[in-house]
Amino acid sequence: MVPQAAGYSGLPGVVGSEDIKQNEKNLAVNQSWSHDSVDKAALRQSKPKTEVTSEMVRSSTMMVSDKASLLSVKKFELRDTIVKSQLVQKEDSYTSIQNFRFFVGTYNVNGQSPRGSLQPWLSHDIEPPDIYCVGFQELDLSKEAFFFNDTPKEEEWFKAVTDSLHPGAKYAKVKLIRLVGIMLLLYVKADLAPNISEVEAETVGTGIMGRMGNKGGVAIRFKFHNTGVCVVSSHLAAHTEEYERRNQDFKDICSRMQFCQADPSLPPLTINKHDVILWLGDLNYRIEELDMEKVKKLVEEKAFLALYQHDQLKRQMDEKAVFEGFTEGEISFQPTYKYDTGCDDWDTSEKCRAPAWCDRILWKGKNITQLSYRSHMALKISDHKPVSSMFEIGVKVVNEELYRKAFEEIVRSLDKMENANIPSVTLSQREFFFKDAKYMQLQVEKLTIRNGQVPCQFEFISKPDEDTYCKEWLIANPCKGFLLPDSEMTVELEMFVNKSTATNLNSGEDKLEDILVLHLDRGKDYFLSVTGNYLPSCFGSPIHTLCYMRDPIQDMSAESIRELTLMPLLVNGEAFKGEKPLDIPKELWMMVDHLYRNASQQEDLFQQPGLRSEFEHIRDCLDKGMHDTLFGSNHSVAEALLLFLESLPEPVICYEFYALCLESASNYVLGRQIISRLPECHKNVFKYLMAFLRELLKNSGKNHLDTNILASIFGGLLLHPPPGQPKPDITEKRKAQQFIHQFLLREDNFP
């Protein structure tokens, strides 16, 4: 875990973030894969003279939604929730709209450090903005940043932004969030800081295996006065032909980005559960169907509207395939990508990328007016140009007197309900069946809860002697909520089998069977039956099990699969019931052979994600034994290989050797001895994979792979700590990388 800067105090024009508190805690900088942490730099530097006082901040956290609990005495458990819910419904009666100026900026900096002032971008207007939302992509392109999320560039760019904020106002930093090279900074005018509350930040990686943070999004949500705002900075998949992957990245960010609420009884907030959404970033959509010279000619003629008709993002939005409900302003500036660094010339490199509007700003919500949308050609350190937009946004501001009246009316009406009947609901159905469930393929069934005449709070609760309300492959979304009289809510039951649940479902030790208990506060319990059938998969099956399976797994009987999955790991590969095992799993051979024949020179192999639909096809081919039909891009097959290795219940290098391998990370002789002690099938797989990776390295001039990249990717898959142990820290990750690195440099025969 790498501590990130929480304050950076002492910079001109900025109030330190340690003085802006939320829920009585510092709004420290959040970093991907870690919790908020205190920073060394903050301790070194003195506090600025102008501070946002804790008294100001405490008042800011007490927004309308919280006041109900302070002004009323709870007469029963639901009272607080009812008051809050009805206050939201009556919001228009006690709020008025006031306009504030939001600056939104995005810049792909191509791994460069800042040089010179950013004021031409950040302080372009005469009037200072009230709020700054500043996003970056490709902050650091080093492998160190990619694999370990560690970079000095964060502090460099934070300081550069802080130094370049509008000189006409004093600003407080509210939050900084970073995922590898994607960063988002939020500032507010210091005198408006008391009106900021409920600040949360989250990250979603959409890179290879759906997790790596070279692509994805970071977001900050907050309340400004009484308006919920969510700002997202994202970097979507690259390359002209990959628009479907970009669409998928957007949808993944929307579905996986969830913010905890201050009230733990409330479900997490998603991006779309906000009044105002500002989305910025290198969205990577390109211009299609025009050759390079035609694009440049239209740019030279400033025929941007004609060029825009060929813009992929416009076309995908027109088809409602992405950013549904969002708006983008008219583009009246030339494409922001790709330039030779240091000047305004189009790309003259070997790849000679066509110009494109990669860098975009979109919005969603009411009372939003875009005042400007422009690029900034004066900044030349990157192959992208920064983009900015100034918005005037109508924010709901509370009138305290009108608020109190609304509050008192609600309390009076609640007093009349004190002796109301026990709550009850009607359910749309009580039995759910997931048909032909597959590995890593989401299925959703919907339950509608219709409330009666009494306000009620519902929650799925755990059964006796169980820790959670459902099995690991199931989730109810939301799992709890509140219903006013005569209202209804739809709950989605999501079934998703991953590496942690697949093995037991393959073996039959677990089944797609569960009972959900829906509990009403002060009311009765309702029981829901959830069943389904799971199609067994090579994903989640042990290596030695697959070596004994000569037939495709879905052609085998459930009894045979169970017997082979539960069989003990035989060290020397001896026959089981007279059947000699294969040297390696046939499914592994199919993927590696495909990549060897088709992808040895593929650029960005094992670093760029494939398409989910193609992974599902590859999985089905492997499970059904369709040997010659691994259709899909090289990236999809490569990602399937990584997911296969990740899903193994016992890694290629068995758990018992994990600590020994880390100890011998720089001793090849000891490392070879450890590998020689692996069970025969595991040893064969290790040797086979190392031979394949060494073949890829022979084409490094074309595929741009090197030993460090491959050792980092495969180190964490072939070698990881046993279940129950903490996740590996940076030191352990580096040792795992070192251990694999040794075998990529040598072609010795193993004993």
TrEMBL record:
Q: Where in the cell is it found?
A: Cytoplasmic vesicle, Phagosome membrane; Early endosome membrane
Rho-GAP domain span: 564-751
Q: Which GO terms describe its molecular function?
A: inositol-1,4,5-trisphosphate 5-phosphatase activity; phosphatidylinositol-4,5-bisphosphate 5-phosphatase activity
Which InterPro entries does the record cross-reference, listed alphabetically?
Endo/exonu/phosph_ase_sf, Ig-like_fold, IP5, IPPc, OCRL-1_2_ASH, OCRL1/INPP5B_INPP5c, Rho_GTPase_activation_prot, RhoGAP_dom
* Hydrolase in keyword set: yes
Tell me, what is an example of a GO biological process annotation in this record? signal transduction
Stated EC number for the protein is: 3.1.3.36
Q: Which UniProt keywords apply?
A: Cytoplasmic vesicle, Endosome, Hydrolase, Lipid metabolism, Membrane
User: Which SMART domains does its entry note?
Assistant: IPPc, RhoGAP
- The answer to whether the entry has keyword Metal-binding is no
Name the principal localization, coarsely classed: membrane
Mention any Pfam family matching this sequence: OCRL-like_ASH
Q: Which family does it belong to?
A: Belongs to the inositol 1,4,5-trisphosphate 5-phosphatase type II family.
The name under which this protein is listed is phosphoinositide 5-phosphatase
**Which species?**
Alligator sinensis
Gene assigned in the entry: INPP5B
